[in-house]
Amino acid sequence: MAAQPATFSRNLFVLAFALFSMALASAAADGSWLKHVPEADRARKNPYAGQADAIAAGALVFEDHCAKCHGADAEGRGKKPSLRSSRVQGATDGEIFWLLKNGNLAKGMPTWSKLPEQTRWQVIAYLKSLGKSGLFGYSGKSPLEVGR
Q1: Residue 54: which H helix or E strand, with range?
Q2: What is the pTM of this model?
Q3: Domain spans, the chain
Q4: Fewer CB within 10 Å, N or C, the chain?
């Protein structure tokens, strides 16, 4: 009988840890990473914003590096978030640049700091060109068609 209280305590600890981990993961998925972005990074502007050539180049990089997790349409897959959400589309270019540079490893988002800065800005130009999901925000184009 003495083993039952120990087993119960251990199971309770495991359950509490699992719930805490889920809450932490949920917080990261809801954009909590944004509070970690320094003001100087937040204020950075994309030098390639709106440029058709940069958007097309960013689409190619997105297809190679991002679509596997976020989907070819950037709408997300499984637990991987949509990049067409209001949160992402409303983020500043500098905030997204910071995330690409630093990643969010707890949520499975790798750091892309090894990609040249120009390439990261091009990916951001592409993402912003997609707009928000929904009736008025979706272009219906594949990544390779955007910017044509």
Answers
A1: helix 52-65
A2: 0.70
A3: 1-30, 36-148
A4: N
CA dihedral 38, 80, 84, 32 (to 10 degrees): -30
Give, to the nearest 10 degrees, the angle between helix 117-130 and helix 93-102. 130
Q: Does residue 18 sit in helix, strand or coil?
A: helix
Just give the CATH number of 36-148.
1.10.760.10
pLDDT values of the chain reduced to their tens digit, one per residue, 148 residues:
555 666 766 655 444 444 333 333 333 345 777 888 999 999 999 999 999 999 999 999 999 999 999 999 999 988 889 999 998 999 999 999 999 999 988 888 999 999 999 999 999 999 999 998 754 444 444 444 444 4
Contacts of 64 (CB under 8 A, 6+ apart): none
